[in-house]
């Protein structure tokens, strides 16, 4: 996943190179296009008529994920609270206020 | 009589783990699930262990294809979990893990409701130790809440069992159904453990607070015992279809915004349980097979994902997505294993999620529940989005976090455990026939046909495309340090506040009442004093003359009366 960089000796990793990131993105785009084209070629034996709509699955997958994220963002406005909402002193020793039981046990 | 001893190897393993140390303990703990699995192998369906106690016919051990399948599964999960926790020296945690696995095995072999109840409570107690073992303030609170919910589920199960037996149904654990009140009570008891909507929050509250290996055990047993119990007692109950599709859909919204990555996985666990619950609700042979097979696969891929996140937690001490990222540079093996888990849960063809999830989805469509089908498709796209992409992306890729400097691969035993789970994920995905042969109903189902593969690949590829575009256009919500309100708000905020406020109200009423009474008493005392103190009307000294005068008046009037 990595190769030595000659001049500095520090490692550069697979995705430190923006070219590789672009490669992944392009790969996904090509895959998507191929899959839509296959929709025309492969005859689907289906149970439900909606499955025969052109690009039903791709559209449904894309739209539902976008809707999911947008709704989740709205949900966040409604339900997000500070990290220590339920317990304001998360790192406090639970046994501290009744005579430091932990040390007592030890 | 191997059927009597089916839980013995694991219980014995737990006991011995408590009194041995070092290599010997490691060997004993590894041997326990292997011996147990061999014992399950020697059992033949119908080989029950029956006994009579206080005049009641009991079947503490019942062997059929369903219990054998879960028996294998739980021994396998225990073995992987033991390998994963071999580096630990924490005795209570190790003992609890094996005892927990033993209770799970006992529960799925329980032929009567009484035995089921005993193991049900055993699961609650042993598993809570895995939460407490984190030894932090948060885990203590989460563990107590977890234990309360689990024990409440047990109490309901006992109440339902008594009512069920009282109704003349006996104690045998077979189909129960929702017709009777007892059936409804037991349904809720199972529902709590299966994390039905609004009863689910114990899971997402406690699992992220448990120890790294504790969560691996937790994600395998409790909820799967509940799924087994629902499949046994409520197959074909239509309400389960709607409960299940709700479970599959609503947690994914929380999973998208949750920051703690093990909490994301906990929400996605509920989402996967939703698929199984739908399958049980449909109740056809294909659907039940699908539900059970999916439970089997879920233990493997969810275990793998939990293990990979546990490894990150073990190495960095951090689990919040906002604080992680870029770890593929130092933990490439863990990253690859995590992505195998991600591909499996997302049901990519050739991975095990695909061969069981497609059974359920096909069964739903065959029975004509088209809206439920659309819901499940949404959930399937969503699970890829949050468990398939979000988990690996925010932990291992994304931005470079400060933990990259110090991160390294986890201990070897963790990697080995993850590799076993990953190989099984791919193995079952490529050769599903072995798993299918273990299912309760014989099946000639084949997941690998062109239409199935194409539609699944289209769904997944375009979900990935959606993630990519939202990320590139910066619409995707960033990971934020936060808490998200959920059903537990009712018992962690609302109820305490309500109780505090009502106490405050009662106190103020009480205080006003006391004040009024005191005031009244003060007035009474003053009144008394006015009449009786030294200068009071009734206590002052009278002159002798007036006394003589009044005596004269009295005598005079008596005389007068006498004459009249």
Number of individual domains of chain B: 3
Helix content of chain A: 40-55%
Kindly report the spatial arrangement of strands forming the biggest sheet of chain A: 1-2
Structural class of chain A: mainly alpha
SSE ordering of chain A? EEHHEH
Strand percentage of chain A lies at 5-15%
- The tally of strands of chain A reads 3
| Helix/strand order of chain B, N-terminal first | HHEEHHHHHHHHHHHHHHHHEHH
Q: Give the overall silhouette of chain B.
A: elongated
Distance between the termini of chain B: 116 Å
Question: In summary, what is this structure?
Answer:
The complex is a heterodimer of chains A (106) and B (564). Chain A is mainly α and 106 residues long. In chain A, 50% of the residues lie in helices and 8% in strands.
Structure description:
Chain A is 50% helix and 8% strand. Chain A is built from 3 helices and 3 strands. In chain A, strands 1-2 form a two-stranded antiparallel ribbon. The two termini of chain A are 48 Å apart. Chain B folds into 3 domains: 1-234, no CATH class; 235-487, no CATH class; 505-563, no CATH class. In chain B, 72% of the residues lie in helices and 2% in strands. Chain B has helices spanning 8-19, 22-42, 65-84, 91-109, 113-132, 137-169, 181-193, 201-206, 212-233, 238-257, 261-282, 285-316, 332-345, 352-366, 370-396, 412-430, 433-438, 450-472, 489-532, 544-563; strands at 49-53, 56-61, 483-484. Chain B is elongated, with a radius of gyration of 33 Å. The termini of chain B are far apart. At the A-B interface, helix 1, helix 2 and strand 3 of A face helix 6, helix 10, helix 14, helix 15 and helix 18 of B. Strand 3 (80-81) of chain A pairs antiparallel with strand 3 (483-484) of chain B.
Task: Supply database-style keywords.
heterodimer; A: 106 residues; mainly alpha; 2 domains; 3 strands; flat; disordered N terminus; B: 564 residues; 3 domains; two-stranded antiparallel sheet; 20 helices; 72% helix; 2% strand
């Amino acid at each position: 996943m990595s190769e030595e960089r000659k001049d500095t000796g520090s490692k550069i990793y697979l995705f430190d190179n923006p070219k590789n990131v672009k490669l992944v993105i392009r790969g996904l785009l090509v895959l998507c296009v191929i899959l839509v084209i296959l929709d025309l070629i492969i005859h689907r034996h289906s149970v439900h008529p909606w499955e025969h709509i052109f690009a039903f699955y791709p559209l449904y997958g894309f739209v539902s994920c976008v809707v999911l994220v947008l709704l989740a963002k709205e949900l966040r406005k409604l339900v997000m609270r500070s990290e220590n909402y339920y317990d304001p002193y998360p790192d406090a020793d639970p046994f501290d206020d009744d005579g430091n039981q932990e040390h007592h046990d030890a | 009589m191997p059927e009597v001893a089916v839980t013995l190897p694991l219980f014995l393993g737990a006991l011995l783990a408590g009194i041995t140390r070092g290599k010997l303990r490691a060997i004993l703990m590894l041997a326990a699930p292997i011996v147990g699995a061999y014992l399950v192998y020697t059992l033949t369906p119908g080989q029950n262990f029956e006994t009579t106690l206080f005049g009641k016919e009991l079947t503490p051990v019942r062997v059929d294809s369903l219990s054998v399948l879960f028996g294998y599964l739980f021994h396998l999960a225990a073995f992987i979990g033991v390998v994963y926790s071999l580096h630990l020296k924490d005795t209570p945690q190790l003992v609890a893990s094996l005892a927990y696995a033993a209770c799970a095995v006992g529960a799925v072999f329980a032929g009567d409701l009484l035995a089921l109840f005993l193991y049900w409570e055993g699961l609650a107690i042993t598993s809570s130790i895995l939460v407490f073992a984190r030894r932090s303030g948060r885990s203590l609170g989460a563990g107590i809440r977890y234990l309360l919910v689990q024990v409440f589920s047990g109490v309901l199960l006992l109440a339902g069992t008594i009512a069920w037996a009282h109704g003349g149904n006996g104690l045998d654990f077979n189909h129960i159904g929702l017709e009777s009140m007892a059936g409804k009570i037991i349904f809720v008891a199972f529902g709590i453990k299966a994390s039905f909507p609004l009863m689910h929050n114990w899971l997402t509250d406690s699992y992220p607070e448990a120890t790294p290996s504790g969560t691996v055990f937790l994600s395998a047993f409790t909820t799967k015992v509940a799924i087994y119990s629902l499949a046994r007692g409520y197959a074909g109950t239509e309400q389960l279809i709607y409960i299940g599709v709700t479970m599959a859909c609503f947690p994914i919204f929380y999973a998208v915004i949750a920051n703690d990555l093990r909490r994301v996985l906990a929400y996605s666990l509920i989402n996967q349980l939703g698929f199984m619950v739908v399958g049980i609700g449909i109740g056809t042979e294909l659907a039940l097979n699908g539900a059970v097979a999916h439970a089997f696969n879920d233990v493997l891929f969810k275990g793998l994902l939990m293990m990979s996140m546990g490894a990150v937690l073990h190495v960095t001490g951090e689990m919040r997505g906002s604080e992680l990222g870029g770890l593929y540079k130092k933990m490439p093996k863990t990253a690859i294993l995590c992505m195998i888990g991600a591909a499996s849960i997302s049901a990519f063809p050739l991975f095990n999620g695909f061969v069981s999830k497609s059974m359920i989805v096909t069964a739903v469509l065959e029975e004509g529940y088209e809206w439920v089908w659309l819901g499940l498709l949404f959930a399937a796209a969503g699970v890829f989005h949050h468990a398939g992409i979000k988990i690996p992306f925010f932990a291992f890729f994304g931005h470079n976090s400060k933990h990259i400097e110090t991160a390294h691969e986890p201990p070897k035993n963790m990697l080995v455990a993850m590799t076993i789970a990953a190989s099984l994920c791919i193995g079952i995905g490529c050769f599903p026939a072995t798993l299918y042969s273990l299912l309760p109903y014989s099946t000639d189902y084949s997941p690998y046909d062109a239409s199935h593969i194409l539609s699944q690949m289209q769904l997944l590829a375009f979900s990935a495309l959606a993630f990519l575009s939202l990320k590139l256009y910066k619409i995707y919500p960033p990971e934020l340090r936060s808490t998200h309100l959920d059903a537990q708000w009712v018992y962690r905020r609302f109820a305490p506040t309500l109780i505090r406020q009502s106490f405050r109200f009662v106190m103020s009423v009480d205080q006003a009442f006391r004040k009024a009474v005191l005031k009244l008493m003060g007035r009474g005392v003053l009144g008394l004093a006015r009449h009786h103190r030294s200068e009071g009307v009734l206590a002052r000294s009278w002159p002798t003359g007036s006394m003589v005068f009044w005596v004269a008046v009295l005598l005079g009037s008596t005389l007068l009366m006498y004459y009249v």
